[in-house]
Amino acid sequence: MQPSIASRSKIPIFGVVAISLAVALGCARERIYRAGTLPTELQASPITNVQTLDLSHLAGPPVNHELLERGDLVEVSIAAGLSADAITRIPVRIGEDGVALLPEVGSVSLAGLTLATAEQAISAACTQRGFYRQPQVTVTLREQRRNRVTVVGAVNTPGVQDLPRSSSYLLAAIVAAGGLADDAGLKVEIRAPTGNTTLAQQPPAADSTGVQLTSGQEPIDGSGVTYVCLNLADSVARGDGSHYLPDGSVVTVEKRQPQPYHVIGMVQKPGQFDYPLDHNVNVLEAIAQAGGVSNLLADKIYVIRPEPTGDEDAVIQISLRSAKHKRDENLRLQPGDVVSVEQTPATMVIDLLRALPLNVGATVPVF
User: Fold this and answer.
1) What is the reported pTM?
2) Residue 64 binned pLDDT confidence (cut-offs 50, 70, 90)
3) Under 8 Å between Cβ of 153 and 144
């Protein structure tokens, strides 16, 4: 007598189940973490979209455009009489020490003064030194000293930017470079030459750690350059991102190139997927990107993530059913993660039944 379909399929079905149990329960593997109790060091950092940051916190203090600074070129007009011939016009550049040297009159400290107070200072110097009794002095700003700042990295128009010296701050440099690019990251590096780099009336800027950047600061690496590394999100939150950029500074905006994540196992379209730049990806979204699960009983998910030490990978187990109802189970992924929808005894049975040939004419006993 020929065995029935039920009796012929009994051995392979239970054999597969036994093998599945052996694999699932008997195989030794590394420590498995649970999503709800994941250690802090293994949790993925949230993605911050830099395009949503309020970069106004990177601006410097309000600028008085009549304020004179070192390196500015001014024209000093001194009228000693009523005729035009009695007017003396002197072009002079304010030195790095803040002093302007006027022929016959001598040196007058002008840096940090407004045009009106500069006129008063020059007039007083002329009277005190006996050159004029009641001079009429006019000071005109002809050329404001500019800082050449190089902005590279994730900006729309990288290159050398000419910034007015009095407003040469980080935000002005980023704006002059066309703003942050879509792939801009949070990290910004500033390399600035040491020396007399602060404005006459401007206190030294502080870096992201609170260290004051002063003209007398020693080069950090012996090369005559100070180095500041800041996180845009942190600087915006603290309101301490208004870094002054002296002439010759270099600003590098991090360009984000996150590693792709992978979805493998029991999904419709396993493969590699780009990690987006502007939002986080969680487990359910990753599985949806892969076309969903290929077996309705699939529930066991492993997220394979490199340990912070880099020596081995951490394995995080998630329940698909729980992830649909519990936020902490719907794990946030980080770039480079591998999401594996695992086989279980139940899914193996379903797959085996799908693979069995259908013999419509066969008699299947009920006992």
Assistant:
1) 0.68
2) confident
3) no
